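FAQ: What does the model actually see?

It sees only this:
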Amino acid sequence: MNKRNRLTTWILVGLVLGIATGYIAHTSLADPKSFADTMSLITTLFLRLIKMIIAPLVFSTLVVGIAKMGDAAEVGRIGVKALGWFIIASILSLTLGLILVNLFRPGDAMALSGTLPAAGASSGITASGLTLKDFITHLVPTSIFDGMAKNEILQIVIFSIFFGTGAAAIGDRAAPMIAAIDGAAHVMLKVTGYVMNFAPFAVFAAVAGVVATSGVGVLATYGKFMGEFYLGIALLWAILIGIGVLFVGPRLFKLLGLLREPTILAFTCASSEAAYPKTLEGLERFGVKNRLAAFVLPIGYSFNLDGSMMYCTFATVFIAQAYGIELALSTQLTMMLVLMLTSKGMAGVPRASLVVIAATLNQFHIPEAGLLLLLGIDHFLDMGRSATNVIGNGIATAVVAKWEGDLTDPALADKDIATAPLR
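And it is asked to produce this:
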């Protein structure tokens, strides 16, 4: 069993043990909330370790990739192709969520239950609206150090594009610096390997804490809603994979195998950001050249969160249905367009979707208290949408690489990424 398969196995073991431990804590301890708080320390530590490596990893790999392209026109062409795919995938995800929530109408059962929170109750989620002006100004960092400190991936990408393009423009004079940044990228990939050794413990703690707090009974209470949502996730996977096969061919299924580990990691930790380093590695092993993968993937983490976007429409209309608010088709289409904007720049971290949903509820005069219906099961829903984000971005990067002719033989790419030279 190779190292990647061993890590995947241990992550799954952590998931099973976490469920069992959480159930025991929920049924046996007088204060399972205290137990959950203790477990959250382990999960928080792991996610902070991931955040620690994201900024330098994105910066170093992207700068080296763009500098080696040596052509600003090529950068622009790849960027336009990537954004075109992201927009189409966003529309598909949001539309699928709208269709399914109107077809299943999960909120009607909640309305009949008589257990709705008062419309004026506080959800505890701070709504954060995002106007077009806010979005555009947010793209450019006032300081790259501030952007890195806050892990603002979009801002890091913008600075890296300018930096890498400038380095390519001055040619040989920048070669020593690019070589040094290339070395830093390999160091960060090695550090990533060290951090990933903690993944099984983080998975165990995350799942144990959630089950200890909510109990497995919450899955039965919301079983229908969760089942319908995960059916939507399965359909979205089928659509994305089907379109991916049209462009990449049956070889795409090899990519899905290579993305198994980061997908499981994102699922169990409920964070697509936690899977970023391993997703980048999987794409390189598949044959996507580093310079393209390092450019498209971080942009996708802001513009192409397919699972999160489908959830936003599904959850928002669900809450409206629960409170007996009928939304006209025109209103729902307007809501979808609003979510197209507000979901961009959404952090790939746990519960970021709830902030976007809270802002959308306010704009359409739907009681924000409806979020309380979702808080108890949001972690379990976030697991599915985070895994979908990984698959969606992996397929998007592979398709753009195919369009660019930058998809090489996977047999040649399947080597030790930590020691191989960046392509």
